[in-house]
Amino acid sequence: MSNDPLLQPYQLKHLTLRNRIIVTAHEPAYPEDGLPKERYRAYTVERAKGGVAMTMTAGSAAVSKDSPPVFNNLLAYKDEIVPWIREMTEAVHEEGAAIMIQLTHLGRRTRWDKGEWLPVVAPSHHREASHRAFPKKIEDWDIERIIKDFADAAERMKAGGMDGVELEAYGHLIDQFASPLTNELDGPYGGSLDNRMRFCFDVLKAIRARVGDDFILGVRYTADECLPGGTSKEEGLEISKRLKQSGLIDYLNVIRGHIDTDAGLTDVIPIQGMANSPHLDFAGEIRAATNFPTFHAAKIPDVATARHAIASGKVDMVGMTRAHMTDPHIVRKIIEKREEDIRPCVGANYCLDRIYQGGAAYCIHNAATGRELTMPHSIAKADRRKKVVIIGAGPAGLEAARVAGERGHEVVVFEAANDPGGQIRLTAQSERRREMISIIDWRMSQCEKLGVTFHFNSWAEADTVQAENPDVVIIATGGLPHTEVLSKGNELVVSAWDIISGDVKPGTNVLIFDDAGDHAGLQAAEFIAKAGGKVEIMTPDRSFAPEVMAMNLVPYMRSLQKLDVTFTVTYRLEAVEKSGNELVAHVGSDYGGIAKQRTFDQIVINHGTIPLDDLYFELKPASSNLGEVLHDQLIAGRPQTAWRNADGKFQLFRIGDAVAARNTHAAIYDALRLVKDI
Ligand SMILES: Cc1cc2nc3c(=O)[nH]c(=O)nc-3n(C[C@H](O)[C@H](O)[C@H](O)COP(=O)(O)O)c2cc1C
Ligand code: SF4
């Protein structure tokens, strides 16, 4: 038996958890019709296979119709959910993991124009900044109805074979009752702490009465809202003690902070560049004060920190949630003493930002997550060993090299630069985005183990490639900044990359015209403003940096708003002219009728990349498929069989930005889905 603190079993009432690592509640937005169908099940089961002790499935499954999901959550109020839940719980139990589900009523944290268009309810009329609905003040019959809805939903989950349910209190209706900031009720549910906690206890009592004692019940709640006038740490401690003393629950799941704004949410769930495990000590204080089973998750991305969380006795169960989206097999790798093989979560938060933007959660550098029905987490060996030559060692090229290596092929990579990484190396120039380099480092170490040959500082020509006698050639050469977007003066501007790489010195009065809306524009702005320049970011869009998304924007805003940076939306840079030492920007608008002139000493354009595709087109005539990708085969996960040239000696493919400007996830997905069948 291992003496690793993480691998010790934990007895939670009648439930034996096989180790100390859990996946906390998170809604990846994979439900179909509000039900956990095949895709949902496959995602959940993969984590159980990987060895986690318990997976808290769903996040915020809705118990009532006036709690309509804002990002495709499970609908726990539907009776037809039970058989789907049962299939999932049985499959997870077969893998030896426990499974619970998180239930909620969102209160004001939703919108009235979702679901059945019912009024949003909350214990006050104050709206939540993030979701914008002005709530109806909740009435006595709403309260009775919702308490019953919670009990009904819990009963459904028990019938579906769940080991327990967790109530999502923080930021949702239960904590909206508890917090003085959001509870303006008179009578039994408003005013004193006793009254503000009454709703929570009524819900817990109603659930317990339905599910009995042999069912785990927990609450995920904020024990310190970190907001003036909100639930304070002192009150949070008192709430924690009362939850324990109620005898109704089996564990506490501790949150610190508030989630009513993007900034608040990002402090609760920190992203890259923010401190690791920022609330672990706080969770430890709650555990020490209550001496009650305590769970906690918040940016504990690596095994060493998780081990410390358990060994130091700060928590009983440690959540590694995004870490399991990046690598579902963490526990298995710990047991096999292969921790260095764990694919690291880099805190990019592409997963969470996507669900808030209405999409499904995908991991920036594991394209199999959420696609378990079609994409493998473990790559199968090929029947025949081939020679695969890859040009470019950015994220797409390295993923192709890794997957080809796992397939057992002989793999050779040519890279023009001294180092691998491509655009990610540039991204990681920003202190706050340094963690991104692990996307490259992990792939390099995997490739090394797989015997991939690298030629750096090597500009591959068509001859070089053909001299390798390849069976397959993959062009992953990426792109170069595309700045030729003006009717006049394209030669007078620089690119965001010129600034980030340090190739061009920042100006003092700078316009950044950013219609790509991705990280590069904001990174360049930060470089210039930190060097003392005045910066205006201009976009023709209705909002700036839409590709950066909500939580990723928070650290930028915290930095840029303190510096000399302004944000201008709905204007388009049309042309640039030189006038003495100055640059004159001709500014118009897609709405028409605007022609302004402004002067700057530097103008930066961020407009994506243009593919570096010369080598591809040089090689194309010599290839057997003439570069063709059969989409039906690609989508169905079958080998590519396009045959357009009888004289062709090798298959030729192009992936990532060498095809068209996209993002890191798209580049890695291109590589995985093509190469897994080569
Ligand atoms: C895609 C996604 C959805 C989430 N949804 C929920 C949710 O519905 N309820 C909840 O309590 N936490 C939710 N979380 C937060 C996680 O449970 C966890 O607290 C957070 O990711 C921090 O832990 P980590 O750093 O280990 O990922 C979500 C997280 C992710 C990544
Ligand atoms: S997208 Fe980023 S934060 Fe989310 S799981 Fe992947 S690496 Fe982690």
TrEMBL record:
MF terms in GO: 2,4-dienoyl-CoA reductase (NADPH) activity; FMN binding; iron-sulfur cluster binding; metal ion binding; methyltransferase activity
Cell inner membrane among keywords: no
Pfam families reported in the protein's UniProt record: Oxidored_FMN, Pyr_redox_2
GO terms classed as biological process: fatty acid beta-oxidation, unsaturated, even number, reductase/isomerase pathway; methylation
Domain NADH:flavin oxidoreductase/NADH oxidase N-terminal: 6-340
Cofactor: [4Fe-4S] cluster; FMN
Keyword Acetylation included in the entry's annotation: no
CDD domains according to UniProt: OYE_like_3_FMN (cd04734)
Alphabetized UniProt keyword annotations: Flavoprotein, FMN, Iron, Iron-sulfur, Metal-binding, Methyltransferase, Oxidoreductase, Transferase
Domain FAD/NAD(P)-binding: 386-622
PANTHER family: 2,4-DIENOYL-COA REDUCTASE, 2,4-DIENOYL-COA REDUCTASE [(2E)-ENOYL-COA-PRODUCING]
Family: In the N-terminal section; belongs to the NADH:flavin oxidoreductase/NADH oxidase family.
Protein name as annotated: N-methylproline demethylase
Organism field: Rhizobium fredii (Sinorhizobium fredii)
